[in-house]
Amino acid sequence: MSPKHVPPLQTQQIKAQLKSRELGHLLELYEEVNSTNDVAKEAALNGAAHGLTIVAETQRAGRGRRGRIWTSPSSGDLYMSIVWRKKIPQAHLALATLCTGLGVASAIEKSTAKTVQIKWPNDILIAQKKAAGILVEGIGRSEGLNALIIGIGVNVHREAFPADFETLATSLCLQSDSGSPLDRGVLLCDILKDVEDWLEQLCSSAVAPILESMQKRLAWRGQWVLCDDVAGQIQGLDDKGALILATESGPVHLLSGSVRLRERDSKG
Q: What is the pLDDT of residues 202-256, one digit of tens each?
């Protein structure tokens, strides 16, 4: 679908479709921002309530993990950030990104009827290509974590990508077989509901179902990858959500890193 045919998001229409208990009931829509995470972070520092959701039609300076650029044209995609204030046990904070990924993945499956996987820790894949990304940032004070800012970007109606990404990225419209326009408002509400459900489980320390679901969605299991400078085959996740790689010197558990596919005979 051409961007000019994608209807703009409307606050009242979104609120009428909300299924989440708290997320999105405080909602701010913008035509353009530098970054929805930056807007949400500033709002949180100024006392914004739990569940505030910032949505923009385009971002001038969207970003992903490790400061990577997230291109955010006004092409009918979805750029959003959530202020999460409910307490997550310190021992489980690392699972917040995985919970968000589970919620985004299930919401996308409802819109596309396609199998959706999660490339640990924060990329959402359809047909081995990135369709969405997640950036979770903490806001801390002297007494500890004050809030999480949960940024989500979904390629919804984008039909073309920069040359460096055209073989690595996709969009929901490119993957959908229906031929019908995708309703971004419905997708937004599904994401808010499903992300909220998973994060609520995390707040109550219900870790087992989170890890079980993540294991089922884990991309590239059994394949040879490079996670930063560690090469190995993906075996799964441990009970902390760390990625387990089988290396030549034994299993390695990684709590963070950037994963990419690598041919077995080109390791180094």
A: 999 999 999 999 999 999 999 999 999 999 999 999 999 999 999 999 999 999 9
Helices 207-217 & 184-203 angle (0-180, nearest 10) = 130
Q: Tell me the three state secondary structure of residue 211.
A: helix
Asked whether the bond before 8 is cis by omega within 30 degrees of 0, the reply is no
Estimate the crossing angle of helix 96-112 against helix 184-203, to 10 degrees: 150
- Residue 2: partners with Cβ closer than 8 Å, 6 or more residues away: 159
Cα–Cα distances in angstroms (integers) from residue 188 to residues 43, 53, 197, 227, 240, in the given order: 20, 10, 14, 31, 29
In whole angstroms, what is the distance from residue 9 CA to residue 199 CA? 25
How do residues 2-53 score in pLDDT, each as one tens digit?
455 789 999 999 999 999 999 999 999 999 999 999 999 999 999 999 999 9
Q: Which of 6, 3, 9 is nearest to 27 (CA)?
A: 9
Q: What is the DSSP letter of 8?
A: P
Residue 170 identity (one-letter amino acid) = T
Taking the C-alpha atoms of residue 163 and residue 166, their distance in angstroms, rounded to an integer, is 5
Q: Under DSSP, is residue 251 helix (H, G, I), strand (E, B) or coil?
A: strand
pLDDT score of 129 more than 60: yes
CB 96 within 8 A of CB 88: yes
Question: What letter would DSSP give residue 207?
Answer: H
Q: Exposed, middle or buried, 68 (CB in 10 Å: 0-12/13-18/19+)?
A: exposed
